[in-house]
TrEMBL record:
Keywords: Cobalt, Hydrolase, Metal-binding, Zinc. InterPro entries: ArgE/DapE (IPR010182), Bact_exopeptidase_dim_dom (IPR036264), Peptidase_M20 (IPR002933), Peptidase_M20_dimer (IPR011650), Peptidase_M20A (IPR050072). Residues 196-317 form the Peptidase M20 dimerisation domain. PANTHER family: ACETYLORNITHINE DEACETYLASE, ARGE_DAPE-RELATED DEACYLASE. GO terms for molecular function: hydrolase activity; metal ion binding. Its cofactor is Co(2+); Zn(2+). It comes from the Bacteria. This is Acetylornithine deacetylase/succinyl-diaminopimelate desuccinylase family protein. Belongs to the peptidase M20A family. Gene3D superfamilies: 3.30.70.360, Zn peptidases (3.40.630.10).
């Protein structure tokens, strides 16, 4: 029966390529959220033809949702012939901007040299297409399967997922008893299972001063100079301390197996809207920086925040006129699914079957929508598995390999077989 399943997927190879190219041709750029509705409807129309019940759910009131740019999600469900668990494949349909440096049209869905090129090919429309093909082949070969299969195309993952998976999770779409197992076809390489991700804390720090004439800065107080003291303390104290923290989580790449912090942006003083004229001679009374702190399973969010605020409080006590405020923007706890969880063992069996090797178990350096499945849906049998090379995501000439998609579809189909029919279990 496995050979029959594999043949069913091989027979759909051209369909898989065409489906991937079609999905790429929807320029679902986020921000602002272009073409979400027509892309969702294309997916829904496809799944209706396979017998799925289809629902469109708009993330009303979520960041960026407007009548011009509605946060339109599609979710589809097919109930089998008898009761059983539900397996849900979730893919985000939004992509980042194309940027410069392309040698092909980023939204043409170009097929050449065994690859499909375009923005979102790897991250993650190739994975979405592979999951649809896997499901359709499985249903054709095993029409009497028990349980249920769901497929969703959701929005805004690239900007936090609030109009997509987070919104649906709040509505019960990613919780038991509706769903038991979730596979997110993110591009983590076809022989890897991604168990979760590091934690993240974004915050904005503002230092304050007082405005004065630039020819007499001694009459004012420069907020930028105060921020420079903050950054110097980070360089001298915080960054070396973070670099010494290591994790047992199998994070890839190797450099992400430690705590990290990125300075996202700095804004201080006068804006550049004076150009092409000259700036006014002012001492800046405000300077803001946004930090992006990634942390490990071994760390608590309270300790992560305290490392920063302790430096700021010390500067306030030591530096004349120093004052600051800090505003939390975003925080997510680290997440790691157990290796012996049902969805992990099912997909691992598929990798062994297709590639003749044990899967690599990895953790993503950044977050993805698994965070909402766990945090809001309280569903922990969730992984990321899909075709595509992570290093190609968001880059010019992004591509996904056709053979990789076919092989990943076979892995997904075996995973379905294990989870729904119990195939391969002793």
């Amino acid at each position: 029966m496995k050979e029959k399943l594999f043949r069913a997927i091989d027979d759909r190879r051209d369909d898989l390529v065409a489906l991937t190219a079609d999905l790429i041709r929807f320029p679902t750029i986020n921000p602002p959220g272009e073409a979400y509705t027509p892309c969702a409807e294309y997916i829904g129309d496809r799944l209706k033809k396979s017998g799925f019940g289809v629902e469109y759910v708009r993330g009303v009131g979520t960041p960026g949702d407007t009548d011009r740019y509605p946060r339109t999600n599609v979710t589809a469900r097919f109930d089998g012939r008898s009761p059983g668990p539900t397996v849900h494949f979730n893919s985000h349909i939004d992509v980042v901007e194309a940027g410069d440096g392309w040698t092909v049209d980023p939204f043409a869905g170009t097929v050449k040299d065994g690859r499909v090129y375009g923005r979102g090919a790897c991250d993650m429309k190739g994975g979405l297409a592979a999951s649809i093909i896997a499901v359709e082949a499985f249903m054709a070969v095993f029409p009497d399967f028990p349980g249920a299969i769901e497929i969703s195309g959701t929005v805004d993952e690239e900007s936090g997922g609030y109009g997509g998976v987070a919104y649906l999770a709040e509505k019960g779409y990613f919780s038991k008893p509706r769903v038991d197992h979730v596979i997110i076809p993110e591009p983590l390489n076809k022989d890897r299972i991604c168990l979760g991700h590091r934690g993240v804390w974004w915050a904005e720090i503002e230092t304050r001063g007082s405005i004065a004439h630039g020819s007499m800065p001694f009459l004012g107080d420069s907020a930028i100079r105060h921020m420079s003291a903050v950054l110097a303390a980070f360089e001298d104290e915080l960054f070396p301390a973070l670099d010494r923290k290591q994790t047992k989580m199998p994070v890839v790449p190797e450099g992400a197996r430690r705590s990290t912090m990125n300075i996202n942006s700095i804004h201080g003083g006068q804006t550049e809207d004076f150009r092409p004229g000259l700036p006014a001679p002012n001492v800046p009374d405000s300077c803001r920086t946004v930090i992006d702190r990634r942390f490990l399973l071994e760390e608590s969010i309270d300790d992560v925040k305290a490392e920063v605020t302790s430096i700021l409080d010390r500067l306030k006590s030591e530096r004349p006129k120093f004052d600051y405020s800090i505003n939390d923007l975003f925080e997510v706890q680290p997440n790691m699914t157990d290796r012996d969880a049902p969805v992990v063992t099912a997909v691992a069996e598929g990798i062994r079957e297709i590639f003749g090797k044990e899967p690599d178990y990895v953790i993503s350096p950044g977050t993805y929508d698994q965070k909402h499945v766990a945090r809001i849906g309280h569903l922990f049998d969730c992984i990321a598995y899909g075709p595509g090379i992570l290093d190609l995501a968001h880059r010019p000439d992004e591509w996904v390999g056709i053979d990789d998609m076919v092989e990943s579809a076979k892995v997904m189909a075996i995973g379905l077989d294990v989870l729904l029919r119990g195939a391969g279990r002793s």
